[in-house]
Design a protein that fits this description.
Length: 466
């Protein structure tokens, strides 16, 4: 009897240990770099869904806050929070602010551009957001508060200035080195917050630029750099920046942040994160690669190291994969480990055309499948203004779905790039399937200008694994 009880206890302990090892495997070291323009997956193999985002660091952990989207509606679902110790592997923490019963963030409302700061005077975490109706005709700036960084935030209502609400939409936030908090809005407005961060103290500057939205500020030494995108709805454009030695100005427009025509490496500005090492600070640009209407599954992020020289700021080249470095080497480009696969070895179903070394189809339901033994699989694709959505699925040898996501192949200008990379999985046999959805990204803005793709093509340049 004692031996049986001992054996049962031992098996139970081993079960708990295995569960812990699996959880650890699912939350750490599944990514070896920061990858731009592809979906990332959390510990549950779900897309990291935190758009229009910001990051706040507490202790040795980074907290990512953003808009949580679906693929069916632009209505506010909630604001999400993820955490990471390395900016590469993200763990879902909480839906920190959910849809309210009614009011500014009630059903069928918009909630966007979430920004979070910790108030030095109170120790409270204060969250700011743009709220609106679904037609974008009722803009307000709202705020919420919480005593813990990743807890349940309480919506407090409108952020007021002299008792009046701010009729603003695209917004950002900036905390200066002295702890003063500022709200940034479209068209070049800066508002200083009161000491408790719960209301506006004064307008610092207004109309510093014309036609700019999605504002973000960084400070190096005694100089401020203020970045904006142009107003092209969810389409990417060439973002630009201003500089000044004081938030009051005068502000001088300096030009584009990335090379002309790259559309800021196919992204829209959202936030700058200072990554501080022992002797220096690397600033990381955080941008969104929107994908309307499938924002939940197909919209991705473009995070790039920023180059600062005097009063000039740039993102001169696109790093597909990189990670923060040390004081002597601020960042390191990382090569993706890959075993290239001849597309002749994939299993095709439906109508596919071979163009050069590429496989192309716009036939709804057409698939390409490849079975491999390894830990990770990726897709290189060709993107242009006729490209659009593919469903990507990974199944294990028992046919269990491990990853199920949507990949957007659209780009306003043609380019070949990484379109999908799985996290590192337990070694084993897997099958990757790419399916043409026969749908494309398209939308209109308030002026009824049409944006997005004009067709349903999916073009596969390569499938690789390791």
């Amino acid at each position: 009897m004692k031996n049986a009880l001992y054996l049962f206890t031992l098996l139970l302990l081993l079960s708990f240990l295995n569960t812990g090892l699996l959880e650890a495997q699912n939350t750490a070291n599944r990514y070896e770099a920061i990858y731009s323009g592809i979906s990332w997956f959390d510990q549950n193999n779900k897309e990291v869904n935190a758009h229009g985002a910001c990051i706040l660091k507490e202790g040795d952990r980074y907290y990512l806050f953003g808009e949580y989207h679906t693929d069916t509606s632009n209505a506010f679902i909630g604001f999400s929070c993820y955490s990471s110790t390395d900016l590469m592997n993200w763990r879902f923490e909480n839906m920190v602010l959910k849809v309210q019963p009614d009011g500014l963030l009630g059903p069928n409302r918009v909630g966007e551009r979430i920004k979070v700061m910790k108030c030095p005077a109170t120790g409270e975490y204060v969250m700011y957001m743009h709220t609106d109706d679904l037609r974008y005709k009722d803009p307000h700036v709202g705020y919420a508060t919480c005593q813990t960084i990743n807890g349940d935030y309480q919506f407090q209502g409108e952020l007021l200035h002299d008792g009046n609400y701010l009729k603003k939409w695209d917004l950002g936030a900036f905390q200066d080195s002295d702890g003063t908090g500022y709200l940034l809005t479209h068209e070049g407005f800066i508002y200083e917050l009161n000491a408790d961060y719960r209301s506006v103290k004064l307008q610092v500057v207004g109309h510093a630029t014309s036609g700019g939205e999605s504002p973000a500020i960084l400070k190096q030494g005694g100089r401020y750099f203020w970045m904006f995108s142009r107003k092209t709805s969810w389409e990417r454009n060439d973002n630009y920046y201003l500089t000044a030695t004081s938030l009051e100005g005068p502000w001088t427009e300096k030009g584009l942040v990335a090379p002309t025509g790259t559309l800021t490496w196919n992204s829209q500005s959202s936030f700058f994160l200072p990554i501080i090492n022992q002797t220096d600070t690397l600033y990381m640009y955080m941008g969104d690669r929107w994908s309307y209407p499938k924002q939940g599954s197909a919209a991705t992020y473009v995070w790039q190291p920023v180059t600062l020289t005097g009063d000039e700021m740039s993102i001169p080249q696109f790093h597909e994969s990189w990670r923060p470095g040390s004081s002597t080497n601020p960042y390191t480009p990382i090569a993706i480990n890959r075993k290239n696969t001849s597309l002749k070895n994939v299993v095709r179903k439906g109508e596919w055309k071979t163009t050069g070394n590429h496989l192309t189809s716009k036939a709804q339901g057409a698939t390409v499948s490849y079975t491999f033994n390894g830990r990770q699989v990726g897709i290189d694709g060709l993107a242009n203004n006729k490209s659009s959505y593919a469903k990507v699925t990974i199944r294990d040898k028992r046919n269990k779905v491990i990853i199920d996501t949507t990949v957007d192949f659209y780009s306003k200008y043609e380019n070949a790039s990484l379109k999908f990379l799985s996290p590192l999985l337990p070694s084993g046999q897997y099958t990757l399937t790419i399916e043409v959805l026969g749908e494309h990204t398209t939308w209109t803005d308030k002026s009824k200008t049409v944006y997005g793709s004009t067709d349903h093509y999916v073009t596969i340049k390569d499938v690789f694994y390791n």
